[in-house]
Design brief:
The chain is of the alpha/beta class and 347 residues long. It has a single domain, classed as TIM Barrel (Alpha-Beta Barrel), CATH 3.20.20. It contains 16 helices and 9 strands. The model has no long low-confidence stretch (mean pLDDT 96).
């Protein structure tokens, strides 16, 4: 591979400079994306492999990023289980048959991802051909808990009361649901690696709503099982959640090669909790990209200084790029991270 510094950092190997990619780097802040969005609904873009591949490549063509991430969404795999999903303007994802009872859980199918999400696997193959070993491609899935939250709540939520009520009041039902979702996630990730993904990220977007003890009891065992099974793919595994500073001492137990952290914790302090045997990804606040360049540079410098050139740092945001983020700030950040972190070690 022409540029493998991202993969080397995942393995905590020396690199010539800190690798950088950005969550949601293919998205609405780019005019190229908005042009396509005028022609397609969101799910149509995800489910049309040629379109998903084109969108995946847009930031690769615009910036010197060190990894691409497939354009997809965490929720379509749920459709194969029998869940009816739409994306509504102004509302985001809506699940029309939320999971609330034991009968609902028992009725969930266990799909073959090579059939139910064949469109994303096909998009991965198309992107791999176009990348032609230029940089690695990241595949991803939602984590079992985050998928459960959407399925139970019927979409996004402020307090996740239905999810927590099921978790607290019906632990046996919760275990059955999480078992099914763990199989779904691990099957999907393995299929992505088989299709050509060079690394895999597990998004636990909503796990931060839990108390650490609840995370340890009701979520961690299933993430561990998922990671253990996906490790058979042989590709690096990244685990990321928002608002999980309180779980830092627990996160090494996940077993992933890389832990992504958000901006609520200082990078060096997080790394102390995670231990030197884990690579760390993060952790610029996405809103900082709206600030003047001098502020962006200062914040990037702080993160790089806290990483201190230790093997295993991947520069990223603490969450996805926001709509209306200035494209020129993204480009300048990518260039600056590379130049400011350049060192004499061979990549």
């Amino acid at each position: 591979m022409k540029n493998d510094r991202f993969l080397r950092a995942c393995r905590r190997e020396p690199v010539d400079c800190t690798p950088i990619w950005l969550m949601r780097q293919a998205g609405r802040y780019m005019p190229e994306y908005r042009a396509i969005r005028k022609q397609y609904g969101f799910l149509d873009m995800v489910k049309t492999p040629e379109v998903a591949a084109e969108i995946t490549m847009q930031p690769v063509q615009a910036f010197e990023i060190d990894a691409a991430i497939i354009f997809a969404d965490i929720l379509p795999p749920l459709e194969g289980m029998g869940i009816h999903l739409t994306f509504e303007k102004g509302e985001g994802p809506v699940i029309h048959n939320p999971i609330r009872t034991l009968d609902d859980i028992e009725a969930l199918r266990q799909p073959n991802p090579r059939e139910s999400v064949a469109f994303t696997l096909r998009a991965i193959g198309l992107v791999k051909q176009e990348l032609d070993q230029r940089i690695p491609l990241i595949g991803f899935s939602g984590a079992p808990f985050t998928l459960a939250s959407y399925a139970i709540e019927g979409g996004s939520s402020r307090d996740f009361r239905h999810t927590k009520k099921l978790m607290y009041n019906h632990p046996t039902n919760w275990a059955l649901l999480m078992d099914k979702l763990t199989t779904l996630v691990s099957d999907y990730l393995l299929a992505q690696a088989e299709a050509g993904a060079d690394a895999l990220q597990i998004f636990d977007s909503w796990a931060g709503v839990l108390a650490p003890g609840d995370y340890q009891t009701y979520v961690l065992p299933y993430v561990q099982r998922c990671v253990e099974r996906v490790r058979a793919s042989g590709v690096p595994i990244i685990y990321f959640g928002v608002g999980m500073s309180g779980m830092l001492p627990l996160l090494p137990q996940v077993g992933s090669d890389v832990i992504g952290i958000d901006w609520h914790v200082l990078l060096d302090q997080a790394w102390e909790h995670l231990g030197p045997e884990r690579a760390v990804q993060g952790n610029l606040d996405p809103v900082v990209l709206f600030a003047p360049w001098e502020e962006i540079q200062s914040r990037a410098d702080d993160i790089l200084q806290r990483a201190n050139n230790r093997p295993g740092h991947i520069f990223n945001l603490g969450h996805g790029i926001l709509t209306e983020t200035p494209v020129e700030h993204v480009q300048r950040l990518v260039e600056y991270v590379h130049s400011a972190s350049a060192r004499n070690e061979s990549a």
